[in-house]
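Exercise 7. Given the encoded structure of a 497-residue chain, write a plausible sequence.
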C-alpha cells in the first residue's frame, strides 16, 4: 500500500524547485579514479556570517542508501548524492558550513550500464519517483538488497514480485492547482517534501485517464470563474482534484476538494465535466476549509452518481469511497494478497483477525477459506465500506468493527477470546505495543504481517520473535515501481505448535 504523504513543510509562492539537473553522457570516456580528488575551492559567507566553503570534487559512487541516493566517501565522511549510481564517477560540489556538509551532483563523468534516461520529463524536479534513472533490473536488485539487509535477522526473503508494465499503475491521484507568475492557472503535483507546485500534464505512474480528467478540469476553471486555492492567503476555491479509478470495473470517481461549501454554477460544471468525460461514474464535492496539508476535509456532498466506485480484486467486488484506503496498485495487490492467504494456511475452520482491515479486502478474501473473520479498522468510512462489501459478496462469516486495532486486541485478550490467525496490515508507522502484546496473549498459531514500511515491520517482528514467534517466510512485492517503496508480507508461526 502506498500511504505516502507529502510533508507539511510549507513554503510560500509557487516556484519551480531548483532541479538537480545534469546531463548523463553514456558515451563519455570512462576514467579511472583511485581516490576522490578535490579540484577547486571557493569561499563565501552564508546568512549567519559563518564562512561557507564550496569545492568541486571528482568522486566515485560506492553504493546506494535505502532511499536510493548514491553513497560517496569524501574526506572520511559518507555523503549522499541524489541520482548517482554505484560505480559511476562524477563531478560534485561540496559545501561546508560549520559541521554542515552538503553535496550536489554537477556532472556524471562515467555512467553505469544500469543508468537509463528517465521516461518522465519532470523526474528531476518532482521527487515523487526516486528510481527512474535505473533500469528495471537495477531497481529490482536495489529493492531485493534493501529488504535482504533489513530482514537479515529473520532469514532470506523470496525474490521480489515485480510488475510487467511498471507504469500507469496508480488507481488514485490527487492534483493541485495554482497560478504561475503570469497568473495563468497551472496544475500538477507538489515536489516531494515541499509545497512547491510543479506544473505538469502527465505523471507516468498515474492511471492515464485520471490525468486526462484533471487536465480537463484545469481547462474549465477559467470559464467557470473557479480560482485555485492559495494556501498562504487562504483565497481561492479549488484546492485539489482527487481521482479514483476502478481498474477492472472502469468506474471513475472525481472528488473536487474545495475551500468553501458555496460552489456557484456547480450543476453546470458537473454537466460540462460529464459531457467531456462520460466515463466518470460519480462526482463528489469535499469541503476542506482548514489550514492543513491533509487533502480531504470532513464535509462531503455527492454531486453525481452513487458517491462510491466499485472494483474487483481477487474475484470479489469492493465498494470504495472517497476517504477509505484502497491499495493503489491493484495488479500487484492481487499477488500480495494471494501470498498472504497462502501463508495463512487456512483449512476452513480458523478464526482470522484482519487487523487494520481498511475496506475489508484481505479479510473478505480470506473468509472464503476460514471459519470466521473479525476485521478492525479506525476509519469509520472504511468500516462502513467493509460491511457493505461483505453483504455485496454474500459473505456471512465476517464481522467488522470500528476502533483502534491495539485497543480492540487488548479487549479481546482480556475477554479470553481465541484467534487462530492474525493478518495485520498497519500504516507506515507500524503497529504498537498494545496490539503486539495482545497478539502474544491471544497466541494465534500464525501471524501474517503485511507492511508498506519494512523498517517498522522489522521492529514489530523483533518484538514478536522475542515473544514466542518464528519467521517462516518473507515475500517482497513491488507495489510502487519507480519509487523506493517496497511492500513485504512475512509469515510468522508460534513456536512449538
Ligand atoms: N488491509 C487494508 C488496509 C491497509 S492500510 C488493505 O489492504 O487495503 C492501513 C489501514 O490501517 C488504513 O485503512 C488505516 O485507516 C488503518 N489504521 C490506521 N491506524 C489504525 C489503528 N490504530 N487501528 C486500526 N486501524 C488503523
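Solution.
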Amino acid at each position: 500500500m502506498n500511504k505516502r504523504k507529502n510533508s507539511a513543510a510549507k513554503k510560500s509562492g509557487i516556484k519551480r524547485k531548483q532541479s538537480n539537473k545534469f546531463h548523463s553522457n553514456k558515451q563519455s570516456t570512462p576514467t579511472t579514479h583511485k581516490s576522490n580528488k578535490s579540484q577547486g575551492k571557493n569561499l563565501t559567507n552564508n546568512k549567519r556570517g559563518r564562512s561557507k566553503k564550496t569545492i568541486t570534487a571528482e568522486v566515485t559512487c560506492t553504493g546506494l542508501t535505502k532511499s536510493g541516493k548514491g553513497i560517496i566517501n569524501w574526506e572520511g565522511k559518507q555523503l549522499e548524492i541524489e541520482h548517482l549510481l554505484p560505480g559511476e564517477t562524477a563531478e560534485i560540489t561540496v559545501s561546508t558550513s560549520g559541521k554542515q556538509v552538503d553535496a550536489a551532483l554537477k556532472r556524471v563523468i562515467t555512467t553505469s550500464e544500469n543508468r537509463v534516461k528517465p521516461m518522465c520529463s519532470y523526474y528531476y524536479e518532482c521527487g515523487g519517483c526516486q528510481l527512474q534513472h535505473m533500469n528495471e533490473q537495477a531497481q529490482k536488485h536495489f529493492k531485493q538488497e534493501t529488504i535482504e539487509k533489513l530482514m537479515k535477522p529473520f532469514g532470506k526473503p523470496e525474490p521480489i514480485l515485480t510488475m510487467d508494465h511498471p507504469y500507469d499503475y496508480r488507481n488514485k491521484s490527487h492534483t493541485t492547482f495554482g497560478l504561475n507568475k503570469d497568473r495563468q492557472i497551472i496544475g500538477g503535483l507538489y515536489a516531494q517534501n515541499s509545497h512547491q507546485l510543479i506544473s505538469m500534464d502527465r505523471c507516468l505512474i498515474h492511471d492515464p485517464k485520471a490525468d486526462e480528467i484533471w487536465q480537463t478540469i484545469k481547462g474549465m476553471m477559467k470559464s467557470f470563474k473557479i480560482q485555485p486555492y492559495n494556501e498562504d492567503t487562504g483565497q481561492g476555491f479549488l484546492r485539489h482534484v482527487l481521482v479514483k479509478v476502478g481498474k477492472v470495473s472502469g468506474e471513475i470517481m472525481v472528488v473536487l476538494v474545495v475551500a468553501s461549501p458555496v460552489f456557484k454554477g456547480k450543476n453546470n460544471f458537473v454537466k460540462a465535466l460529464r459531457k467531456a468525460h462520460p466515463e466518470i461514474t460519480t462526482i463528489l464535492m469535499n469541503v476542506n476549509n482548514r489550514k492543513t496539508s491533509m487533502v480531504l476535509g470532513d464535509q462531503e456532498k455527492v454531486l453525481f452518481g452513487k458517491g462510491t466506485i466499485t472494483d474487483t480484486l481477487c474475484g470479489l467486488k469492493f465498494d470504495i469511497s472517497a476517504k477509505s484506503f484502497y491499495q493503489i496498485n491493484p495488479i500487484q495487490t492481487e499477488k500480495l494478497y494471494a501470498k498472504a492467504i497462502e501463508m495463512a494456511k487456512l483449512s476452513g475452520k480458523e478464526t482470522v483477525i484482519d487487523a487494520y482491515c481498511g475496506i475489508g479486502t484481505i479479510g473478505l478474501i480470506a473468509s472464503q477459506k476460514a471459519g470466521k473473520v473479525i476485521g478492525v479498522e479506525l476509519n469509520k468510512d472504511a468500516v462502513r465500506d467493509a460491511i457493505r462489501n461483505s453483504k455485496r459478496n454474500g459473505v456471512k462469516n465476517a464481522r467488522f468493527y470500528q476502533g483502534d486495532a491495539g485497543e480492540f486486541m487488548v479487549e479481546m485478550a482480556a475477554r479470553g477470546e481465541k484467534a487462530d490467525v492474525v493478518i495485520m496490515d498497519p500504516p507506515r508507522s507500524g503497529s504498537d505495543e498494545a496490539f503486539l502484546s495482545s497478539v502474544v496473549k491471544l497466541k494465534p498459531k500464525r501471524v501474517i504481517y503485511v507492511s508498506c514500511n519494512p523498517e517498522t515491520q522489522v521492529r514489530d517482528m523483533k518484538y514478536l520473535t522475542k515473544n514466542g514467534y518464528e519467521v517462516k517466510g518473507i515475500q517482497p512485492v513491488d507495489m510502487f515501481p519507480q519509487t523506493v517503496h517496497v511492500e513485504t508480507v512475512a509469515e510468522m508461526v508460534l513456536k512449538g505448535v
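Remark. DSSP finds ten helices and 23 strands in the chain. Students should compare their own answers with the one above.
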